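May I ask you for just one protein sequence along with its backbone structure tokens in two labelled lines?

_____
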Amino acid sequence: MRRIMAGCGLAALALAGCSKAPDSTGTMEAPAATGDTVPAAPGIAVTAAPGVAFNYRYGFRLPPRAIAAAQEAHAAACEKLGIARCRITGMDYRVMGENAIRGTLAFKLDPAIARAFGKQGVDLIQAARGTLVSATITGTDAGAAIERAAATRDDAAAAARRAEAQLARPGAGAAERAELQRQRAAAATAARDAAGVVADNRASLATTPVQFDYDSGDAIRGFDSSAPLTSALDTMVGSAQVTLAVLLGAIAIFGPPGLALAIVVLLWRRVRGPLRRRVARGD
């Protein structure tokens, strides 16, 4: 129930994240954690590429009870940056089972700080006894798309002006005027479409999407195959849990019939002696 309440509180946190005062640091504060040391995640560096619109996505695995706190810490870091540099655009928190929780947190960031924000997010997860299980960084050459669309827009605008100039000349027949009007309309439509492509690609360069995916599971023990003692302990605990579950299931299935049989046997023993004596007397 506590996990469900924590997840519900995140929704209000995500909505409030866009209204707090800006803070230029945006340092992430990791929730307190103790225990095994998590190996450092691989360095993720993307060469600066002007005109490329990047998209970052990270997958984390950590203990179930740590997911809500990690989401809150990531959201708080975005709040500190202010809405001009970071906005929360989506949040999801789902309890799939007793120890199965999944969540996501999506941001739109200033491109200049997107990679650093992702690295800080990974560091926070490691401090919370979690691990980075996936990292995907994709890029789209928005600059080239803008150049192509701008050229198409200019050519279409020139074609529309030529058609307009020919329509202004006297002496054109009805069929010719109809064709010129069609050409002018087609050129104007092409110019508007190209202008839309330019605007969309410029918008993709203005902000960088970053998404964090959270999943519960063995963030430390199950991933370190070089620790045989820890793995053996995990196997022993898992085997004990299965054995106990089977034993409790057997008791639940066979317990009531066995109890009834025991009661019948006890009653039979109590009445068997008197019945034998009565039979012997011939009653």
About this structure: Confidence is low (pLDDT under 50) at residues 1-26, 33-38, 221-226. Strands lie at 52-62, 86-97, 100-109, 131-141, 208-216. DSSP finds six helices and five strands in the chain.
